[in-house]
Amino acid sequence: MSTPGDRGTDGRRPQRADARTNRERILSVAEEVFGRGGQLASTEEVARLANVGIATVFRHFPTKAALLEAVLVQRFDRLREQAESLFHAADPGAAFFGFFSHLVADAPGKIAIGEALYEAGGGNGGDAARASDGLRRAVGLLLQHAQRDGAVRGDVELPEVYALLVATSRASAPAHLDEEVRDRMLAIVFDGLAPLRNARRQGP
Amino acid sequence: MSTPGDRGTDGRRPQRADARTNRERILSVAEEVFGRGGQLASTEEVARLANVGIATVFRHFPTKAALLEAVLVQRFDRLREQAESLFHAADPGAAFFGFFSHLVADAPGKIAIGEALYEAGGGNGGDAARASDGLRRAVGLLLQHAQRDGAVRGDVELPEVYALLVATSRASAPAHLDEEVRDRMLAIVFDGLAPLRNARRQGP
Amino acid sequence: MSTPGDRGTDGRRPQRADARTNRERILSVAEEVFGRGGQLASTEEVARLANVGIATVFRHFPTKAALLEAVLVQRFDRLREQAESLFHAADPGAAFFGFFSHLVADAPGKIAIGEALYEAGGGNGGDAARASDGLRRAVGLLLQHAQRDGAVRGDVELPEVYALLVATSRASAPAHLDEEVRDRMLAIVFDGLAPLRNARRQGP
Amino acid sequence: MSTPGDRGTDGRRPQRADARTNRERILSVAEEVFGRGGQLASTEEVARLANVGIATVFRHFPTKAALLEAVLVQRFDRLREQAESLFHAADPGAAFFGFFSHLVADAPGKIAIGEALYEAGGGNGGDAARASDGLRRAVGLLLQHAQRDGAVRGDVELPEVYALLVATSRASAPAHLDEEVRDRMLAIVFDGLAPLRNARRQGP
DNA sequence: AATGAATGAGCGTTCATTCAT
DNA sequence: AATGAATGAACGCTCATTCAT
């Protein structure tokens, strides 16, 4: 599977490429496997589906926790990049709410991600926590922009917004939350985040 | 191990009472242990912390799943009773929001409960699912009353409200969500649930 | 079940009677239970079917092995008595072959007996071995009588005959040996035990 | 643990060979351990005597039942091959009786084999049952040949002959059946199988 | 660098036996 | 004498991790 034949044709450094390929395949398989079964999924299953020996997995990721962390970092980074790509969107409100929806809609089947958003929120000091912070900061900027644009009330702050993001994302992770219900749930949250609240509250 | 003499509060005769006491202690320890570690927590740890032999746990609950289910049923039933006690509250809105807050505030450290609210939402056919349904129905009534009283907008329905309840409860389960943040998160949700929304949305 | 009411009416010694009754019921249930499942059957099942607490079983038989031994002793003794009742039969040959057949036909479902005939053959020094020896001796007498009567060749001796008895009995223990096959198997053995063998062998 | 250097007999390279060696050692140890203690013997004991970790046993045989089955298949196959090697023997009678004796003489200490000959006779649908059937068929052919050759009476059929084979084999399994007794027991059976029986019976 | 065999700690569960009533 | 709750050792089996090639 790891195409050992290449080595014969040219002696430059096919191994390095092979290793990188393996690492990536392992990571991507792990994302799916842990997404399905959470931490309960076995490392052997990752190895099997990635078509590598179990020892190869452990060569690339010294412990199961490290593999899980790498999966999370990848996922957080990807989400952060998506958030960052919206920093200069024409409509900051649409950008914020759109990203919120996207993240929540993306959750189904990705148990580990939900768990991670959730655990990493507490910060465990590892790379995942760092990546999680990166995502959090990006969401913070999207929020700020939306607030400045008047699309989100000005008196909410990142901690509670992020907590809501984690909460709704996590709640959506199990496949059995109906899509329509999920949207109606988000509608309520988004309504709570919309401005004019103050106006209404201040009014008689 | 069970040193029947040290039951300080009441000095009634052991034997049958001892067994009941053990059962209750096991249940309560299990609630805490599974609350911390989820299903991953070991039955042995439950036994150790309950100061009973492992076989005693299995005498009372034939399988680990049965123990977990008993924990959940107990918890769901307790919450349902609390909800039911609010059916005839003078202020249905306060009753609804109060119960919502109570359930979420009660969550910290009770991972299994969150998981259960969440999994049982899908219904696995066991006693826990039945108990979960009972809670859901009770929440449904509280919601209806609050809506009739004008404290909650009339266009939201139980599925999304319950999903929000599960989501925020679950998000609050880890101890590291600051209490103030949790309240601000709830404030947003409650705002989203408040009436006048339609009026505002329809207006220019 | 243990008729605890008797105690009230007369104070003499109903407990003794109760105990004896229990002991017998346990023994008889044990014979059936071990007969079905061998030593693998659990002592608890014996207690359950005998309608007594597990501790009662252990009061009467201090260990599981002792219970098993008691079962075997009872069974060996019963068989020995049956053999002895044939000592003065009019037709010693019919008596011998009849008893042989009876024992083998009685085997189905009595795994423990087969195992015991077999293990006890080696003599483990306990009561069961003693009872087994008693049976063996009784079979020996039946054999002698049959030989004197000319119904069994004179050159066979008890050890091999007993071994055959054990072997065929054991082979018949599982229910799945067809009755007809069992009889045809015995016919072969009985033929081998019939006299005139020597004559034939000595002839050219 | 597996100290690949100490394979005294042949110095071929380990790794794959090591695994095969382990597998074989486990199988052979299992044959002995189950031979002594039947299914009651523990897998751990097999591991201990085979000088491998318990997980190694389970790597080679996914369940205890699979290990037991492998032992039986091996044994049945070996016996079948021996039987087949006698198909074209010059003296079919000697072949049949010789194989019968061999099988019975081979039994001592191999309880599990006896149990298996016995249980598998009932057919449990697994590989062992298949292998058992193979052996049975081979014995059937040896019997036919012996009958055609006039060495075994023509009116006996495989079922009862096989039952006798199982019975005597099983009875010989415990080491405490004296060799001479065993032979005398077989002599009786063989006499019962010999021809001229009919003649004698029909004759005066 | 990659393999997969080997490992042992740990898990859920059972069962003969003991203890307290 | 009888009960049944409690016990812990043992079992079958799994899995993250290491070793030898």
TrEMBL record, chains A, B, C, D:
Q: Which Gene3D superfamilies match?
A: Tetracycline Repressor, domain 2
Domain HTH tetR-type, by residue range, is 20-79
The molecular function terms in GO held by this entry are:
DNA-binding transcription factor activity; transcription cis-regulatory region binding
Region (Disordered) residue spans: 1-21
Q: What superkingdom does the record give?
A: Bacteria
UniProt keywords, alphabetically? DNA-binding, Transcription, Transcription regulation
The identity of this protein, by name, is TetR family transcriptional regulator
Listed InterPro entries: Homeodomain-like_sf, HTH-type_TetR-like_transc_reg, HTH_TetR, Tet_transcr_reg_TetR-rel_C_sf, TetR_SbtR-like_C
Pfam families recorded? TetR_C_43, TetR_N
